[in-house]
Amino acid sequence: MANKINQKEISWEPASHEDPEDPGVLKKVIVKRDDVDEKSKLMMVNLCKVPVEKTHKLHSHQTMEEIFYFTNGRGEVTIDDETIIVGSGDRIIVPAKSEHQIKNIGDVDLEYFGLGIALD
Question: What pTM did the predictor assign?
Fold first, then answer.
């Protein structure tokens, strides 16, 4: 059975690790863990944006790696002690347990897709 959604029908919300009153990153949940087969390692697919001059909270995930695919803007991704400049078309993999943070260093929203993959 097809389970179609359109991201335009989903509201932006602060990411779970953010201050709800002043979030550094907003997300639209495109796929939730409960949407896929229980054997799947896919945890989520989110459409995300870091507004101009914002940085999302430094955090880590103990049992999940994340893949970020950037579609718009310019940013800095810090993973543990390494900082990488990213822009449209770039892909970054954040290993589980790595502290990471994304900062918008451009003049438009930094937009990306975030995919979470559970570890065994």
Answer: 0.93
CA dihedral 16, 78, 116, 12 (to 10 degrees): 40
Structure token pair of residue 34: 């409960």
CA 100 to chain centre: 11
Those residues of the chain that have pLDDT short of 70 are 1-2
Query: What is the radius of gyration, based on Cα positions, of the chain?
Result: 14
User: Is residue 79 within 8 Å of 100, Cβ to Cβ?
Assistant: yes
Joined tokens for residue 15: 């990411």
Q: Residue 93, Cβ neighbours under 10 Å: how many?
A: 12
Taken in order 107, 116, 69, 59, is the CA torsion positive or negative? positive
pLDDT tens, residue by residue, 16-45: 989 999 999 999 999 999 999 999 999 999
- For the stretch 70-90, what's the b/e string if a residue is b when 16 or more beta carbons lie within 10 angstroms of its beta carbon? beebbbebbbeeeeeebeeeb
